[in-house]
Amino acid sequence: MGRVLRTFRCWPGPISSAVMTLITVGVVAWQWWAVPDDPLWFRFFVLFLMLLLCSALALPGILERHRVCEHGLVLGYGPTRSARYVVPWSSVDPGRVRLLRRGQLISRHRGMPQVSPHYRIGTGPLAYRSLAVNGLDTATNPSRDGRRGSGYAWWLLGSPQPEKVARAIEDAMVADGHTRARGLAVRAVEQEIVVPWTPGPPPLRPRAR
User: Fold this and answer.
1) Distance between CA atoms of residues 46 and 24, nearest Å
2) What is the rounded distance in angstroms from the CA atom of residue 167 to the CA atom of residue 113?
3) What is the pLDDT of residues 188-200, one digit of tens each?
4) Least CB-packed of 97, 104, 159, 171 within 10 Å?
5) Which residues pair with 69 in a beta bridge?
6) What is the DSSP letter of 91?
7) 170-201: b (≥16 Cβ within 10 Å) or e
């Protein structure tokens, strides 16, 4: 996929960070108020456990890397050269890039799997915002699961600022000669999808070709 131009991670967004902070402060404050005789070392131990829990929730997203390269996307945890999940720019449809809100609810809708390697969003409850990109499906093995897909799939890239991911993808595609990608980031913002709470038709339609 060439040289890595930009790297993005699924850091928890401001809402998730605020919720985790409030829960941590609330638990520690409740312990000080409800059990005033606890030794100081135990209070710090409880604080350490809460911080450890929050870190464990955020870690999958922090380790997840969306690498925007010269000739395509490289996704996942592994090294860039040997990564399994790659999406060449030649397979990306610039008209099928969308910003998503509540992307963690996508699996509630018909036709969307509960768990999928296409969901690169880290820990689900923390993935409030993401970018959906339709491109080559390098995760599904038709001979293994018996399905014959179109060869394309929606990749969900979790990020607290998906607009920046869309802009980086547009710049990389245009620089690689895919001039039809001009305006990709603006269209992605204008066509943002808020995933409904109520299960229903898939918010992202499959691509035939």
Assistant:
1) 9
2) 28
3) 999 999 988 888 8
4) 171
5) 4
6) G
7) bbbbbebebeebeebbebbeeeebebeeeeee
Measured distance CA(73)–CA(91) in Å, rounded: 11
- Residue range 114-157, pLDDT digits in tens: 778 888 876 656 668 899 999 988 887 543 343 444 588 899 99
Whether the CB-CB separation of 91 and 136 falls below 8 Å is answered with yes
Each as own residue / partner, the long-range contacts of residues 169-174 (CB below 8 Å, 24 or more positions apart, any chain) are 169/68, 169/73, 169/92, 169/97, 169/133, 170/94, 171/5, 172/5, 172/6, 172/68, 172/69, 172/70, 172/89, 173/89, 173/92, 173/94
Nearest to 169 by CA among 91, 79, 73, 86: 73
Residue reference for tokens 């547009």:
170
d(CA 78, CA 85): 9
Check residue 3 and report its DSSP letter: S
Give the count of beta carbons closer than 10 Å to the beta carbon of residue 32: 11
Instruction: Return d(Cα 162, Cα 188) in angstroms, integer.
Output: 9
How do 119-120 and 85-88 pair as beta strands? unpaired
Q: Give the pLDDT confidence score for residue 143 in this predicted structure.
A: 36
